[in-house]
Amino acid sequence: MQQDEKAARVRAALDALPDRTRTVFRLHGVIGLEISDIARGLNIPAAEVEQHLADALVAIAHAVDDASR
């Protein structure tokens, strides 16, 4: 799979995420906020932040994996 195609699939997977999951992923993965800071800022438990991150990573992994088949 070409890098451009992989990047497009990752972007599409991120765009398809629920708003809260996408926000948490961007705050942590792009901006670099700590889980505790995200939890405090969004007024949700840290465990919920971790679940959103896990959901985002699974979606990205599936998008990339499906493309390589």
TrEMBL record:
GO-annotated biological processes: DNA-templated transcription initiation
Domain RNA polymerase sigma factor 70 region 4 type: 9-59
Gene3D superfamilies: Winged helix-like DNA-binding domain superfamily/Winged helix DNA-binding domain (1.10.10.10)
GO MF assignments: DNA binding; sigma factor activity
InterPro entries: RNA_pol_sigma70_r4_t2 (IPR013249), RNA_pol_sigma_r3/r4-like (IPR013324), WH-like_DNA-bd_sf (IPR036388)
Superkingdom of origin: Bacteria
Protein name: RNA polymerase sigma factor 70 region 4 type 2 domain-containing protein
Protein species of origin: Sphingomonas tagetis
